[in-house]
Write a structure and sequence with these properties.
Elements lengths: L18 E2 L3 E3 L1 H16 L4 E7 L3 E4 L22 E4 L7 E3 L2 E9 L6 H18 L11 H9 L17 E2 L2 E2 L1 E8 L2 E9 L43 H15 L12 H4 L2 H14 L2 H4 L10
Parallel strand pairs: 1-3, 2-3, 4-5
Antiparallel strand pairs: 3-7, 4-6, 7-11, 8-9, 10-11
Helix pairs in contact: 1-6, 2-3, 2-4
Length: 301
């Protein structure tokens, strides 16, 4: 009787407890490059969370979203004068990244219950953190995750924040947090915007060009389908406190051993692997061809 030789099954790497990267502010290309680097590290078993801001303000397009014909091939700030532009690795519609706190969470796609469970867990944790600050969030239904993912797949020229989807975090019936996911090579990335002030009319690609200066945005804020924390809390907390509360709740929901701090595990943010991967992806996100959806360049070594 001959022995049967079978190829051993590859061992699935368990997800590591969540590591919180330090707060950072960068332009659109750099921010998206770091998010993609997190996604690649997640495919190897890492669970990573970071919160960040944008300088300059930036208009992001969904991965498959078409820009208006009048803008094709032009410089990024032709979308909005004085404003950066970038294409996200996630789908969905345009978002204007101005006065906000942005989060990114990456983990193995088969960890923590899978992408839909991750979406629910992140939203639940963000909601807990916001409520701890006194934000009067609306109640979310039980089948929220699937409805939210279905809504994120719809593409139009309208801003992502124009149509609150079931399952997204809202207050007074208006959208406060917008999120999107992508899954690639065994990792899942979810990132989203927590509005400090509603400027999302600037994210409508079918609208007129509006600059970021105070005179140009007069009348843009408020009373639309989106809402910022400035309309819900008086006074609004220091953004550092907001980030600490949100990081603590989200990281704790994904196995962090203790209270998370925005400066915790800072060494991971400067690890050679993350720096190297982010530099490669930054080349993609600075490409005008990728911004206008002609092609996605290969990452450079």
């Amino acid at each position: 009787m001959t022995a049967r030789h079978t190829r051993p099954r590859p061992q699935r790497r368990p997800a590591s407890p969540c590591i919180v990267l330090p707060w950072a502010v960068a332009d659109g290309a750099r921010n998206m490059a770091v998010d993609e680097a997190m996604l690649e590290l997640a495919a190897d078993g890492s669970t990573l969370l970071r919160f960040y801001g944008w300088e300059p303000w930036c208009l992001s397009l969904g991965r498959h979203q078409a820009a208006p014909d009048r803008l094709l091939g032009r410089a990024p700030d032709d979308l909005r004068p004085g404003v950066d532009a970038v294409r996200r690795p996630t789908g969905g519609r345009s978002v204007f990244h101005g006065p906000e706190i942005t989060y990114a969470f990456a983990c193995p796609a088969r960890a923590w219950g899978g992408p839909r469970a991750v979406l629910q867990t992140v939203h639940r944790a963000l909601g807990e953190g916001l409520r701890s600050l006194g934000v009067p969030l609306d109640t979310v239904g039980g089948d929220a995750a699937e409805a939210s993912l279905a809504e994120a797949s719809r593409i139009s020229a309208a801003s992502c924040f124009r149509d609150p989807a079931p399952g997204e975090l809202t207050a007074r019936g208006r959208k406060l947090v917008g999120s999107a996911q992508c899954r690639r090579r065994g990792g899942v990335l979810q990132h989203g915007s927590i509005l400090l002030d509603d400027r999302q009319r600037l994210g409508d690609l079918d609208g007129g060009d509006v600059g970021p200066d105070e005179g140009a945005v007069a009348g843009v804020s408020g009373k639309g389908p989106a809402i910022g924390l400035n309309e819900l809390l008086d006074p609004a907390p220091d953004p550092r406190l907001i980030v600490e509360r949100l990081a603590d709740r989200v990281a704790g929901a994904f196995g962090a051993p203790g209270p998370a701090a925005t400066g915790a595990s800072a060494g991971t943010a400067t690890s050679p692997a993350l720096i190297r991967l982010a530099a490669r992806y930054e080349h993609i996100h600075r490409s005008r061809a990728w911004l206008w959806l002609r092609e996605r360049p290969c990452a450079t070594a």
